[in-house]
Amino acid sequence: MKAWLLKDFGLDNLALGETAKPEPKAGELLVKVGAVSLNFRDKAIVDGFYEPHLVPKSLIPVSDASGTVVAVGEGVHRFKVGERVNSHLYSRWIDGEPGPDEPAHCFGMPLPGGLAEYMIIHQDSAVRAPDNMSDEEASTLPIAALTAWFSLVDYGQVQAGQTVLVQGTGGVSIFAVQLATALGARVIVTSSNDANLEAVKRLGAGAGINYRTNPRWEEQVLELTDGKGVDLLLDVAGGEGLNQSILATKAAGKIAQIGFLTGQTTTLNLMPLIFRQTTIRGIAVAPRSAFDRMNAFLNKHEIRPVIDQIYSFEDARKAFEHLARGAFGKVVIKVS
């Protein structure tokens, strides 16, 4: 089969080639990949700063895929040939709390990902793709939508009338705006792009703050919330900005630490954290059970993914370059 293979770190070392088409073992599905979507994790793996010591050579990258089951192994009962499925990043995290070794069973690293004509997904990990979404749309769900859902619903327990702050206008952030709005929350978005802030208001955000022109953006958040701060803040930036996130969150509020766009380390100012009694939780997507619940919610509220651009399979490297420049919503690669 044709597949993109990462043979060393750096986008120049991601090359289209051929490798053996996999055969499904007991309990496994062989999926003909229709589309994949890119996440910052995928870029970080290719660039070599996401757990580089764990990256096999050579690797089929990209975790998030949607496609059609074309063959099944012995004992498969959850799906049949012809049905459409999604991959789920943490292939063994089905329900409840995560196990200590969940990262060892992730698609796109260390397991082979979906940037190929075919991929293997275990029946227990696979999720039924929404009937009302194309493969391109469904491919955006496994990390971006599910991370936003888990942050808002399972962790944040957001209620109507509460206020949520979302950083940026990338994949997770756009889904967070859509989901939080459907939950009845007021949404504030931060971005460095005024045009994106206007666009995200059309998706339901109530206010936008440009953090470049307003570097002390947390002060504006307090003004917008009558000095209280937000109930839940989705932090995708990481780095030193976490201290501002704490100041923008209400007393006894919650921060979902999702990303590390501006850095994987931070010098944390403990006194505001202690006095504000803030809860910070690292969010690494969610179990498959949450995926199933999310899909039902997406269908009920008729939420459709926001896709910035779809690239052909042959133009996969251009898709990575687009992600590096920044995207409004998701960047997708059509495989077949």
Overall description:
With 336 residues, the protein is an alpha/beta fold. It folds into 2 domains: 2-140 and 305-334, Quinone Oxidoreductase, Chain A, domain 1 (Alpha-Beta Complex), CATH 3.90.180; 145-282, NAD(P)-binding Rossmann-like Domain (Rossmann fold, 3-Layer(aba) Sandwich), CATH 3.40.50.720. The chain contains 10 helices and 15 strands. The strands form 3 sheets. Strands 3, 4, 5, 6, 7, 14 and 15 form a 7-stranded mixed β-sheet that branches. Strands 10-9-8-11-12-13 form a 6-stranded parallel β-sheet, sandwiched between helices. Strand 14 (307-312), helix 10 and strand 15 (330-334) form a beta-alpha-beta unit. Helix 3 (141-155) crosses helix 4 and helix 6 runs parallel beside helix 7 (242-248). 49% of the residues are buried. The mean pLDDT is 96.
